[in-house]
Amino acid sequence: xxxxxxxxxxxxxxxxxxEWRTKTAFASGLVFAVLMLAVLYFSRDPxxxxxxxxxxxxxxxxxxxxxxxxxxxxxxxxxxxxxxxAILLTPAPRSALFWGKFVGNLxxxxxxxxxxxxxxxxxxxxxxxxxxxxxxxxxxxxTVAFVAVGTLxxxxxxxxxxxxxxxxxLLLPFLIPPLVGGVQLxxxxxxxxxxxxxxxxLRLIGAFDIAFVTLAALLFEVVVEE
Amino acid sequence: MxxxxxxxxxxxxxxxxxxxxxxxxxxxxxxxxAFTPIERFQGAAQKIYYIHxxxxxxxxxxxGIAGLLSILYLWLKDRRIDLAAAASVEVGVAFSxxxxxxxxxxxxxxxxxxxxxxxxxxxxxxxxxxxxGYLVLRGVLTDPELRGRFSAxxxxxxxxxxxxxxxxxxxxxxxxxxxxxxxxxxxxxxxxMLVTLLSSFGVFTVLYAGFMMQRYALGLxxxxxxxxxxxxx
Lengths: 226, 233
Fold this sequence. Notes:
Chain A is an all-alpha fold and about 230 residues long. Chain A has 8 helices and no strands. Chain A starts with a helix and ends with a helix. With about 230 residues, chain B is mainly α. Chain B is about 80% helix and about 0% strand. Chain B has helices at about 5-35, 50-75, 80-110, 120-140, 145-175, 190-230. The interface of A and B includes residues 149, 172, 173, 222 and 223 of A.
């Protein structure tokens, strides 16, 4: 167990330090998120629909698309000069690679979300301050869901020539439960309703998290075995 | 008899089964149109039921079998299981197309709309899209071993996803009640309608078996030929 955690942490730190030195993926992910928020603001008829009405949807479409662009990066990095073979040759357990990439992706997507959330408040003129802890909980739960499935699928997608195309194709059906749940919960939080009103959605996303993090961790070993 | 010859024979048997099933489908058409009463409220539009519901059954059967074969493949690592799973997905996708085409044709006169985001419609649509993704993934992978493993992963993930999508849309609907009552609870069928429907289920299942045998045989032949070509090179 300790061995697994140490190896996973080493992979997380390796990936984050590469990202820290180049900042390419992070910067482009962030700019993409800002662009999405701005473009979606104009995707309505301002005389009929207020910005607040589409705010929750805009936030979640932005988060999922920005995450999807970032997810392939984790394994594309390892594909160059087949660096992944070197990782698999080390005595570290295979699952360390999954947990390392999973946590690395969570940090990456989490940082983009943390920066775009204040911009979202600014652009859409919504009040989130009183519900911030609940909102962060909802965002964390949904993000865990799509990063888990995304980490598994990107490990497969990068083995093909069409990684950029295949990942969204395979991943989007799996985003329906966390995305719809995230939008529903966010919309109600922005209306100032208590979270206890929404326990059904929270339970659904919670169950999704448990089922798919477990399944992704198990199936990942099938994907990387040589 | 060589493996190739056996595969060819299986294909021919599958072809014969398919022909029998297609004659059965023609029989169902005749029975549904000429010998089954017209439904009182829906009129002639209800006749599509005898094609639509059996297609739904076969689509779910095919994709469910594909999911189970995926689990079996990861366990036994036999390439033929992977070929069978892929054959089942392809047939399932074809029947899903029938399902998703006949549904709106019925929906327009009865519901007054071609499409609605009801739980069953939405899960069928995403199931269909997911397995199209499965076939695309298979198409871009050339290494059969890698293709088998990756397809199995998608198959298993899909099997677990469907109940979640169903629940999601169900909750989405119950929180936002639809303005139109979408579907009245099905009336108990008169005997003649039930006979038509049940024979249609049987015929469609045989049709699935016929398609599946042919598609599997084709996959097998292709696999063996590729093996031969690799051995010659």
